[in-house]
Each structure stands twice: as structure tokens, then as C-alpha cells.
Design a protein that fits this description.
Elements lengths: L6 E5 L5 H11 L2 E6 L9 E4 L5 H8 L4 E4 L6 H11 L2 E4 L4 H11 L5 E3 L8 H10 L4 E13 L14 H9 L2 E5 L2 E5 L6 E5 L2 E7 L7 H4 L4 E10 L3 H11 L6 H11 L6 E13 L2 E11 L2 E3 L2 E3 L1 H19 L6 E2 L7 H6 L12 H6 L7
Parallel strand pairs: 1-2, 1-4, 2-3, 4-5, 5-6, 6-17, 7-12
Antiparallel strand pairs: 7-13, 8-9, 10-11, 11-12, 13-14, 15-16
Helix pairs in contact: 1-10, 2-3, 3-4, 6-9
Length: 371
């Protein structure tokens, strides 16, 4: 690997973390993965590690150019702090707002890149929203929606926990940052329910925390309305409000996650829905641009990967490539909405979104990217 980053430490080898390590290894990086269980017969090296011991972790990080955290969100502040002190590049998949705000502060004195929120939402959805918004003279609204769902839902919830239960519960219970009528506001999750139809499938969308990343601050004063919602099958949000609020499961987040995963375990046949739209004025005329897609499991290196796994892993791996080889900065905090989509799609891992995901056709009408 000829770029600025040669060695990468990947923390957490779960549903997504393993694929992150695998893709980076296949791209040419020197990768070591760490988890509470040591891997066997893997194409990259692994080690067993307790990430709850910050001192030990910091000492280990000294041997790497970059670290990618695929851990539950509550570990990320400790990992980011260690990376910041050592001056190595840091990436994560977190949707947690509090953690990201703390990392933003670190970015002011960073000697390397700090790039949290590099997954799907936040992450790739912000890159799409920015390239859509760039074409408008004045923006009325940016609406971003993402959902990872079973293709063949069962039961009233119509859901399967292919994503981290800690992350999902966090998104469902933490307040959501939006821009409404030009002002940044905080609103309740599991609200603002709307109907969405994608490829003939009726869905619902509702507010959840963290999906916008840093977009509210970026677009303050530039947009009248900006919000993010999670996509689910109809009826899901009503049952989740009942579960968390009427049954008071919000009082015990860990137990809530355990109950939900036990009831709705992961499925192999999943689908990721993306619905991004911008409304505003171009040359005096009101118009609306959209990017609407459904992504399905993909075969990579002879193995079939869930849609949520490859879309998330490809996104963070593409950002690692862009920091290593350009055009992203060599240090400081990186906002997802500042990442150029064309350059993203030209990376080895970003190209997974390309011809198979039909993004290139969309890009033909959106060739530029805001600075």
C-alpha cells in the first residue's frame, strides 16, 4: 500500500467489523483485528483484547497508522481519545451525538484525521444529501431516510436486528437534531411519522437520533428544513413507542436490547432502503431532486454479505482509502457531508456502491460537490 496509511487496527469483529477488516486487507492495508474472541483461519491477523482497559489499548495503538472502531458506541470516546493523543488516524461507525461532539473538540488540536460516523447513516447518506443540495440556489428542505430491514418480514414489528442492538436502542431513545424553519432544534425520537413508497413497497419513516451527523451545523443558515428519519415497515413505530414508553423499557436500555434481539434475531436476506431528497429553487423555479435506491446482499470474494454489512463496511473503508491516498485532509475532524461523492466512488470499496448500486447514473446529473 503506497498511501499515508499502511497499518490499520480494527476493533470489534462482529457483523460489520469483520467485513471492514476483510475489505481493508483485500485493498492492501496491513490489518490486525481485535475482539473478545480471537479469530481462527482468517486472511488477516487477529488478537483477543479487552477494550475496556484504555491504558493497554493506547499502548497497542502505537504500532498502527490508523484505528477503525466497530465497537458499541459507548467505547468510542476512549478509543478516539487514545488515537488523538498518539496522533494516529481514527474512524468509527457511531451514530452517538455526544461522542461525536467530543471528537469534534479533539479535532481542533488533532495531528491526524478524526473521522467518526463513517457508516451508512450517518455517513454515506450525508454524502448523498450534500451532492443533491449542491445543485440548488436556495434550499427549502433536505430529507434523508435510511432503513435496514428483512426482505421477508414476519410478525407485527416486521424487523430483524441485523445491526447493533445498543445502536438501535440509542437511536430510538435519544433526542434528534433537526433544522426547522431555519432554526436548529431538538425533537423527540419515534415521532413525525410519514409514509414512504419505494419500488412499490409501502413503508413508514420516523425521527431517530444521530443520522444527520454534523449536517445541522454545516447547513445552518443555508436550509429552511433538514431532518433524518429511519425507515421501517408500517406499524413498527407504534409498537416501539408502546415498548419503550408504555412498558417503560426506556428505563433499562440494555435489557430492552436483549429482549428485542431475542425476539427478532438477524436474518440473511435483508434490504437497505435509501431515500434522499432536496427541494428548493434553481434559477427561480421550485423543484425536487431525489436519490432513491434499495440495496441487497452482495457477493464479495466468494461470500454473500448482508446488505447492511457491506453498505456500512464499504463506506468506512472508502473513507480510510481517501485519507490514505487523498483527496481528504491529512489531519483534523472530517465531516461526512464534505466528502466528495465522485472521489468516494473511485475508491476500491466505494465502487461497491457504483455500477451494482447504480450510483454512477445518478452522478451523471450531479457531477460537482460542495467544498
Amino acid at each position: 500500500m503506497s498511501g499515508k496509511i499502511k497499518s490499520v487496527f480494527v476493533l470489534g469483529l462482529g457483523k460489520v467489523g469483520f467485513l471492514v477488516a476483510f475489505l481493508l486487507h483485500e485493498t492492501g492495508f496491513e490489518v490486525i483485528g481485535a475482539d473478545h474472541h480471537e479469530g481462527v483461519n482468517l486472511p488477516f491477523s487477529t488478537e483477543k483484547r479487552d477494550v475496556s482497559q484504555p491504558g493497554d489499548l493506547k499502548e497497542r495503538l502505537k504500532k498502527f497508522d490508523a484505528v477503525v472502531s466497530c465497537l458499541p458506541y459507548h467505547f468510542n470516546f476512549g478509543v478516539a481519545s487514545a488515537a488523538h493523543e498518539l496522533g494516529i488516524h481514527y474512524f468509527d461507525l457511531s451514530e452517538d451525538v455526544r461522542t461525536t461532539k467530543a471528537i469534534i473538540q479533539m479535532g481542533q488540536t488533532a495531528r491526524a484525521v478524526l473521522a467518526p460516523q463513517c457508516g451508512l447513516a450517518p455517513g454515506f447518506i450525508a454524502i448523498l444529501g450534500a451532492v443533491l443540495a449542491e445543485k440548488f440556489d436556495r434550499i427549502r428542505s433536505i430529507r434523508l431516510r435510511v432503513g435496514a430491514l428483512p426482505q421477508n418480514p414476519t410478525g407485527l414489528l416486521g424487523y430483524a436486528f441485523n445491526w447493533s442492538p445498543e445502536g438501535v436502542v440509542n437511536e430510538y431513545l435519544n433526542d434528534c437534531e433537526v433544522i426547522e424553519d431555519g432554526e436548529i432544534k431538538w425533537v423527540s425520537p419515534l415521532e413525525w411519522v410519514e409514509t414512504i413508497v419505494i419500488h412499490g413497497v409501502q413503508l413508514e419513516a420516523f425521527t431517530t437520533s444521530g443520522g444527520l451527523g454534523t449536517m445541522c451545523e454545516t447547513y445552518r443558515g443555508l436550509v429552511e428544513n433538514l431532518d433524518y428519519k429511519t425507515i421501517r415497515y408500517p406499524g413498527h413505530v407504534k409498537l416501539m413507542n408502546f415498548f419503550f414508553h408504555e412498558l417503560l423499557m426506556r428505563k433499562d436500555r440494555q435489557r430492552a436490547g436483549e429482549i428485542l434481539v431475542y425476539a427478532k434475531p438477524p436474518v440473511t436476506e435483508d434490504v437497505v432502503y435509501i431515500h434522499a431528497s432536496v427541494e428548493g429553487w434553481k434559477r427561480g423555479s421550485l423543484s425536487r431532486d431525489e436519490f432513491v435506491r434499495a440495496y441487497y446482499p452482495l457477493e464479495i470474494a466468494g461470500r454473500k454479505w448482508r446488505a447492511i454489512s457491506w453498505t456500512t463496511a464499504a463506506s468506512v473503508c472508502a473513507v480510510v482509502e481517501m485519507v490514505s491516498n487523498g483527496p481528504l485532509p491529512a489531519k483534523g475532524f472530517v465531516k461526512q457531508e464534505q466528502i466528495p461523492l465522485q472521489a468516494f466512488l473511485k475508491t476500491v470499496n466505494g465502487s461497491l456502491y457504483g455500477p451494482k448500486g447504480d450510483v454512477q447514473e445518478f452522478m451523471n446529473g450531479h457531477p460537482a460537490q460542495p467544498s
